[in-house]
Design brief:
Layout lengths: L1 E5 L5 E8 L3 E7 L2 E8 L2 E12 L3 E2 L3 H8 L11 E11 L4 E10 L2 E16 L5 E12 L18 E15 L1
Antiparallel strand pairs: 1-4, 1-11, 2-3, 2-11, 3-6, 4-5, 5-7, 7-8, 8-9, 9-10, 10-11
Length: 174
């Protein structure tokens, strides 16, 4: 096992929700960190922890981002971060894993499983080892108290309950 530091300039924590039940709205968080104590070629037994600054949400619409920061959604004034702590990592295939852990949003903690993949390693132009991973998962936002919605005249709702999460990580030895 070795400690790795996330290179946030080459990493992302993104999300996707359905809008009006017909289109997709994507966004990401500009500020996040992670503690990785892992063997990149075999994540089983590793320690993986994430922290996301919820005020850093960016969906390319300032009004929507401010609404997402409000008490209707994340309530960043009282709950400034979202965290994930891995509790179980199972190898599924050579480079694929099921990464299960405790996701905490707005004071609620629930188990969530991500499909994770080790994308490989290399050496950057400055001689530093680089490893890369990606992970995909989904949550029901209402499980975490993110209940705001608006009914549409044509039926359905403005915001889907299901939120897809996509994470891409590039990391270097600490």
């Amino acid at each position: 096992m070795a400690k790795y530091v996330v290179d946030t300039a080459h990493s992302s924590v993104g999300f996707q929700a359905k809008h009006m039940m017909i289109s997709k709205v994507k966004g990401h968080f500009d500020s996040f960190s992670a503690e990785l104590d892992i063997n990149p070629e075999d994540l089983t037994g590793g320690n993986i922890q994430f922290e996301v600054e919820l005020a850093s949400i960016n969906s390319n619409n300032e009004d929507r981002d401010n609404h997402l920061r409000s008490a209707d959604f994340f309530d960043v004034e009282n709950h400034p971060t979202m965290t994930f702590v891995a509790t179980d990592i199972k190898k599924v295939d050579d480079d694929e894993y099921k990464l299960t852990g405790d996701l905490s949003i707005r004071g609620v903690t629930k188990p969530v499983t991500f499909q994770a993949e080790y994308n490989g390693k290399g050496t950057n132009p400055w001689g530093v080892e680089v490893v890369a991973f990606e992970a995909d998962g989904k949550i029901n936002r209402k499980d975490f108290g993110l209940n705001w919605n608006s009914a549409l005249e044509t039926g359905g709702v403005l915001v889907s309950d299901e939120i897809k999460i996509h994470i891409e990580i590039e990391a270097n030895p600490a």
